[in-house]
Amino acid sequence: METPYACYLQLPDLLGLQRPRTPDDQSAQWADERLFITVHQSAELLVSQALVDLKRASQQARHGHGPAAMTGLRRVTAVICLLEDHLALLDHLTPESFASFRPLLDNASGAQSSQFVELFQQITAPDCPSTSNPDPGTTPGAHEAGERELAEEFRALRSAVTRWWTRHLLLVERMIGNQVGTAGTSGLAYLRSQIDLPPHATHD
């Protein structure tokens, strides 16, 4: 009988989604592939929450609710920071173990994640959320200060994204080096082209 906890979180469904393509009798490779799947699935869940919070923060900013918008942006930044730390789990895969099940991915690649693409496009857009309709009781000086604080929170969010990308580049460099990406991209060169990083960021 399911507990209310398992029912509320739909645990049977959630824990049934990790399905390695490695045969069960290859236990070491099976466990490595399951870790790879688990890390990416949980990352997608976190990104889905970041998108919800970013959309809400933008709406709050447009309606003049600066403090609430800043709280939302801080939460998105916290999720991005967690995603950066999350990549450390894949440091427990050796390049050899990844290479053993990599062919089973077919052409699957993280670059195909529509959620990551949407999140990073929104965060790297030229304009940050602004309080276009400030509360009627807000003085011009207070409004300008709020705008500066909101812009600062957005810069912190962009910095968190840059750190994530750098960490991801380091991971890819360790796992596949200069090999072609899983989806046929140029690998490291392709990843570098997606964000403005120093020329030798992967070696810092």
Quickly describe the structure.
This protein has 204 residues and is mainly α. It is 62% helix and 0% strand. The model is unreliable at 197-204 (pLDDT under 50).
Question: What is the C-alpha radius of gyration, as a whole number of Å?
Answer: 20 Å
Biggest sheet character: none
Helix content: 55-70%
End-to-end Cα distance, whole Å, is 52 Å
Tell me, what's the shape? globular
Q: Helical segment tally?
A: 8
Return the CATH class.
Answer: Mainly Alpha
Strand residue content? under 5%
CATH fold call:
Methane Monooxygenase Hydroxylase, Chain G, domain 1
Structural class: mainly alpha
Strand element count:
0
Name the average pLDDT: 87
Low-confidence stretches: 197-204
Return the domain count: 1
**Gross CATH architecture:** Up-down Bundle
Overview of the structural elements:
- The relative contact order is 0.12.
- The termini are far apart.
- The chain has a single domain, classed as Up-down Bundle (Methane Monooxygenase Hydroxylase, Chain G, domain 1).
- Mean pLDDT is 87; it is low at 197-204.
- The protein has helices at residues 4-9, 11-14, 27-62, 66-86, 95-101, 114-123, 140-176, 188-193.
- The chain has eight helices and no strands.
- The chain is globular, with a radius of gyration of 20 Å.
Write the layout of secondary structure elements.
Elements: H1 4-9, H2 11-14, H3 27-62, H4 66-86, H5 95-101, H6 114-123, H7 140-176, H8 188-193
Helix pairs in contact: 3-4, 3-5, 3-6, 4-7
Task: From the structure above, extract its key features.
204 residues; mainly alpha; single chain; Methane Monooxygenase Hydroxylase, Chain G, domain 1; 8 helices; 62% helix; disordered C terminus
